[in-house]
Amino acid sequence: MAGGGGAGRRAAGRGAGAAGPRGAGRAAGGELRAGAGAGVGAPRGGRCGRAKAAAPRSEYTNIYGEDVGPKSAPLKSLFPGEPNPPAPGAPKIRVAIVGGGLAALSTASELLDQGHEVEIFEQRKVLGGKMSSWQDRDGNHIEMGLHVFFGCYFNLFRLMARSGAIQNLLPKDHTHTFCNKDGDVRELDFRFLVGDVKIGAPFHGLKAFFTTPQLEPIDKAANALALGTSPIVRALVDPEGGMQDIRNLDDVSFADWFRSHGGSNESMKRMWDPIAYALGFLDCEDISARCMLTIFQFFATKTDASVLRMLAGSPDNYLISPIREYIEKRGGVIHTGQGCKEVLWEDGPDGTPVVKGLKINRGSKAKVVTADAYVAALDVPGAKRLIPQDWRRMPMFDKIFDMDGVPVMTVQLRYDGWVTEMKDPAKVKQLGKEHKDVASGIDNLLYSPDADFSCFADLALTSPWDYFKEGEGSLMQCVITPPGNGVVSGKDYEPLQNDKIIALADGQVRDLFPSARNLELKWGNVVKIGQSLYREKPGMDAFRPDQKTPISNFFLAGSYTKQDYIDSMEGATLSGRQCAARVTEAAAGLSKAAAKQTTSAAA
After folding, report:
1. Long-range contacts, 12-15 (Cβ 8 Å, 24+)
2. pTM of the model
């Protein structure tokens, strides 16, 4: 559930051509399920089945008239102030960005708004990094991973609002849903109404954790003790102080911290491990307490931080393409299929390197690109490949080589019925032309402690505009992590053929949902990423580099770089904002250096 850059492999399966965009409906009683409502227009064609809400339109309004933006002010350290407009006569520089993920797109958007010239060079033919998606020859939309937007993604929502992509977010019910074996579905329900009054943070969270049936009473009490003695309490009255206390816990695992504060192993197994896997692809024993408590602070202090949203369709259509259009309309140039083979540099008079250009591969040919500033907007493995080995004499760069990424597999499974529809057996095999007439089941992100995929969703329900297909049912997207040692089965998925991986995932879907046991699997697909998010194990925060480097004209962006959020779509976007700010601060000096170099060359 994260963004950045990376590459993966896919296996094609059986399937029919893609249908046009469709919509979802809200059933009586407020539960967000498919199958009700009147159609309204969708941004990219087709008809949707959700009833349009009576809400005033703003830059954070989606196609249904729902306000999907943040509802409360974030911490200053997590949401930089708006940059001042460029002053008359302010220096304008040329910036070359290597990478095409959210960090690169965020950096480019900010720099263009400051009047600079930007070119992006992405090695792959598709833009978006870990957020990229594409269609196979049969019209199936393939994703690099499962992407969920928390209500605390303030920086990403800002970028989406500016580019028009915000209208493509669909909010889900304010619950976190746990799917246990044999159809036992339980919720962490943050909805708290007293009469018609919505009760917010921190009381909605207290209600959710005290009433969830996912934990036994003794584990709820242990949870309350641990969280009640955490930095979250300080954050309620002193958010910045609470955040500093959380930063100071980076050296300890969440499991060790949780147990030391009275938390129980069973509550980690049944609730916190699935959430940890969803956040960082690590369990509570391996993930830093800083990572988990950062999220918990948001959940406790911001009412809507725990609300989940998902794109109405594929990331390429409904997130990456609008941002690309925003960049190109402002004069930015994006090159796909053109990766950086080598950074060209030489030592300056003081012995510090200065970048002179980039050697860019373009098919079988290469070209040299020069600029005033250079940005490596990559993930950890990409940064390791790009950074010259000689630069490791500088501690900032050398530390990057001590970081590594976490492997992950994403499995897509298409069925001839609705997997998560367990209330009405007649609806399980109800197929047809219109999503609003036939789609049924749980429209939300799902967690499970009883499967090797700890988080998953039915994209035909959550993101129907691209993923609903006429005459077909659920499209389950399941995230297997760690693939080298299945959480429940203990199986090593990494050496397995894709057909075997698909069969194992299908079997576990049927174990979770009795409603799926008589359905036919129509198509499957596997995307494997050898190194995805950086491994946020204890002590790694000290290894994260700043966006400004010791090299005056070379900068870094990426969710692994120094920023207060976790490695995620939001972290990538925030890193891009921070990187653009550092580039803009250096623009005057870089402009003078470029002018001096031009004068020397002419002489």
Report:
1. 12/136, 12/137, 12/138, 12/140, 12/525, 13/414, 13/502, 13/523, 13/524, 13/525, 14/522, 14/523, 14/524, 15/136, 15/138, 15/139, 15/140, 15/414, 15/522, 15/523
2. 0.89
Lowest mean pLDDT among 302-306, 333-337, 507-511, 542-546: 302-306
Closest CA to 370 of 93, 92, 96: 96
Rounded to whole angstroms, the Cα distance separating 384 from 376 reads 11
Two tokens, residue 247: 């930063």
Q: What are the helix and strand counts (H, E) for the chain?
A: 20, 25
Question: CB of 504 within 8 A of CB of 411?
Answer: no
Q: What is the mean pLDDT of residues 123-140?
A: 95
DSSP H or E stretch at residue 369: strand 365-369
Helices (H), 361-513: 380-386, 395-400, 425-428, 435-438, 459-462, 464-467, 498-512
Between 507 and 7, residue with greater pLDDT: 507
Q: What is the DSSP letter of 354?
A: E
Residue 111 structure tokens:
């720099």
pLDDT mean over 156-168: 95
Helices marked H in 197-288 = 203-211, 217-228, 231-237, 239-247, 254-260, 265-267, 273-280
Closest to 457 in 3D by CA, of 441, 438, 471? 441
Nearest C-alpha neighbor of 393 from the set 342, 347, 458 = 347
